[in-house]
Amino acid sequence: AVGNGDGGSSLVNAGNIIITGGSVIGTGVNKVATGIVASELSAGSAGTISVTQNANVSASNFGLQTVNNGTGAVTVNFGTAAGSSLTLSSGNIGINTQSNNAGATGAVNINVGNSGIGAGSTTITATNRGISATAVGITDTTVALGDNVKIDPADYGVFIKTGGDATFTSGNAMSITVNDTVDKDNIGVGIYAESTRAADVAVGNPSVEVTVGTNAAFSINSNNGQAIRAVNSGNGTGGVSVITGAGLNMDVKGDHASGIVAIADTNGDLAANGAGNINVKTGSGLITVDGTVDVSGVAGTLGASNGILGASAGGNVLIDTNQSVADTVISVK
Fold first, then answer.
1. Please, are residues 264 and 238 in contact by the beta-carbon 8 Å criterion?
2. In what order do the strands lie in the sheet with 317-320?
3. Do 180 and 187 touch, CB atoms closer than 8 A?
């Protein structure tokens, strides 16, 4: 790996951190604790953090991690080189970014996989979360997956929680598998995106946006499980948008489980209390939810099982499954 710091001697308004890795880090037999970690410890720093890994990672804790106590932007890239096929294995969280400064405005961007003709496949396996991005400031946070990205954890495939906009996008043939039989903690969500922003920055720009590409597959096995949970918890007018492409295959099993949840909810109990607009649009495909399966032996708590739940306590709610080519087929029991 190559690491560069272009300043920082004063620890105030410090320079940027750039780490580029091109060699394999750890193996299945000889795991490292953390593959790469980049930390900005000074709250007064506006320096940026950039981590790029272009080879496989096998770690017992974090695969790639950034910790930012400053206010600058953070970028993490894994498997983004054209045509590359990489694997990241983690005993905790595959890719983990933490932005801890309440005054931070620098964006967080996590890019995984590559796209287009000749795109490779990128795989992240993890014990807890595949990708996790948390920020306490007004930090716009985006997780962007390329084509053929596979994520397989026990709790969350992708977890985003921020005071700014929370955005997720994926390319073609994404696959997320979450199986709670490992720890049986009734946590099993494919994509979780939450913004605490009280109001959208502009009309037509919801604070939470989840856009899933074509031919996506979700397999969720957990009480309280959900394939997608998109939440504005700002208790204001912040909106939520969930869009899935054609060829969707969403299979969710577990007591009180649901397929897609898009909601203005401050309490996490699926009882809407915010007034933001909610928009859900699905392409052709299948959403199957079986709420009769008990995965952990501890009953779920998130209400009745739903194929799609859109809820707001004052905003408009639009759910559209009727497409010109083929509708979304929803089966719930």
1. yes
2. 2-5, 17-21, 49-53, 74-78, 108-112, 141-145, 166-169, 208-212, 240-244, 278-282, 317-320
3. yes
pLDDT score of 269: 85
DSSP for residue 82: T
Q: Specify the pTM.
A: 0.95
pLDDT tens digits along 131-187: 999 999 999 999 999 999 999 999 999 999 999 999 999 999 999 999 999 899 999
**HSE toward the beta carbon, residue 55, CA cutoff 13 A:** 11
Rounded distance between C-alpha atoms, residue 186 and residue 165, angstroms: 27
Confirm if 140 and 164 have CB atoms less than 8 A apart.
Answer: yes
Interacting residues of 127 by C-beta distance below 8 A, sequence separation 6+: 90, 91, 92, 153, 154, 182
Say if CB 262 and CB 240 are below 8 A apart: yes
d(CA 174, CA 158): 12
Token pair listed for 210:
């989840």
pLDDT, position 325: 73
Given this model, what pLDDT does residue 14 score? 58
Percent helix / strand / coil, the chain, rounded to 5? 0, 50, 50
Angstrom distance (rounded) from CA 267 to CA 274: 10
- Chain segment 172-184, per-residue pLDDT in tens: 999 999 999 989 9
Please report, as a single letter, which amino acid is at residue 309. Answer: L
Which residue in this structure is represented by tokens 């073609």? 172
Burial (CB count <10 Å: 0-12, 13-18, 19+), residue 191: buried
Assign residue 247 a region: left if phi > 0, alpha if psi is -120 to 50, beta otherwise?
left
Inform me whether the pLDDT recorded for 3 exceeds 80. Answer: no
